[in-house]
């Protein structure tokens, strides 16, 4: 199978990292007494379970972010290109990271389902006689936050050993941020970029009714439809899900400064199919007033799911590690080479030391912005270099296949006595046609390699490392790893002059010839 066929990973079973691999062993907890269909109607071996009061439980899913290191995070493009709802849903940049780690893999945990009526009641102190699997709708933002506060308190007092550990402090339950919600809804690291950026992951199935039930009705019981690629249920078109931050308008790629009401994501059963998407954002006021009576805003389609979080700073040791990482990012590449012009922020700092306090403060602000912009540029360059290296690996795969085709038809047309003259001539023409195609693809391949060296030579090792981590996260090392390693090696050898473009392409043909020779009938026969 070609690598391109493996880029799309869909379905609940396509988690790159299992919960067993990520989470440290927790102390044994009492088994839930609720029927499983109430809290986890679609169980999966990768589920992470946390206990609840009244013999209940809640299922979570691991969401790996592909980031590692103290200040590393994952840049993502959220939203959609929609002119009708652009001021709400237009594409914008965001970043995600996980507070928990196993080795160098960061992740967070998000509820597999929307919080149910049974779970809400149990946490509020009222054990339900007949636990209900219906989502806990008619919720205000304050209701959702109150649930996370009460559940966090109960866990820390009754089941702290069941919580994942974070270096920065104890874990707690909270609402997801918009970026966390949308990153997980789109499939996170379990899907390729073309699936992640699709408006609706339901595009992966033939019948959207398998994902949600549009129309004028109330939300349905949890887990009744198919999951998204990370194994999350009901993220689109069941209950609208309240998130942590207040609503802001989109100002062409960034959030506007006006802070509004609260945000609900994903649409509900009341929405028609054409308006449902992973990007859909709705604003609701925190409060409403009718006839002089104020009340928190609630709707019978408003619910919520939760995530597990942890502090960002932590203790003094963690804060010191953060400061060192920040300084390293700020100063990366600051020392000029003999040929390079002095960096403007370094020159400005030297000038500032000779000025008044007021001017020094102004210069310091300029220096900070220059350093932030430089950090953004380095991140963008790294992403570009990784994408180009992946493109080179894809072209290399095409070269391998074409080269083997050339070698096969060329050898057979010249050496197979069973071929008629006409068929031998036809196969010789096929060899020549594929060789011409090899030349065109080869030209594109070496052009990409040369551009990599010219534009990103110093960042090529880091781009290679980042791409290999991403492939490992998506479980694609077996498919693409060797191709990426060869493309990286070719780019490096072109850069240092140990190979020229002709030797790179002839080496690929030699490899193809050896592959065809090794697979020719009778070659390895005893």
Quick description:
With 526 residues, the protein is an alpha+beta fold. Helices cover 42% and strands 12% of the residues. Strand 11 and strand 12 form a beta hairpin.
Residues in β-strands, percent: 5-15%
Number of strands: 14
Write the H/E string, N to C.
HHEEEHEEEHHEHHEEEEEEEHHHHHHH
Major sheet description: 6 strands, antiparallel
Helix percent reads 40-55%
Mean pLDDT: 82
End-to-end Cα distance: 30 Å
Structural class computed from helices and strand pairing: alpha+beta
Molecular shape: globular
Contiguous low-pLDDT stretches (5 residues minimum) are 1-22, 202-208, 334-341
Radius of gyration, CA atoms, in whole angstroms: 28 Å
Q: Please tally the helical runs, counting DSSP H or I stretches of 4 or more residues.
A: 14
What does the model show?
There is one protein chain. This protein is of the alpha+beta class. The protein is built from 14 helices and 14 strands.
Considering the chains and any ligands shown, give keywords for the structure.
526 residues; alpha+beta; 6-stranded antiparallel sheet; 4-stranded mixed sheet; 14 helices; 12% strand; globular; disordered N terminus
How is the secondary structure organized here?
Blueprint: H1 19-22, H2 36-39, E1 48-51, E2 57-64, E3 74-78, H3 86-89, E4 92-96, E5 100-102, E6 105-111, H4 117-124, H5 141-158, E7 172-174, H6 178-186, H7 193-196, E8 240-246, E9 262-265, E10 281-284, E11 287-290, E12 293-296, E13 302-303, E14 307-309, H8 316-331, H9 344-352, H10 357-415, H11 421-456, H12 460-473, H13 477-496, H14 501-518
Parallel strand pairs: 8-13
Antiparallel strand pairs: 1-2, 2-6, 3-4, 5-6, 6-14, 7-14, 8-9, 9-10, 11-12
Helix pairs in contact: 9-10, 10-11, 10-12, 10-13, 10-14, 11-13, 12-13
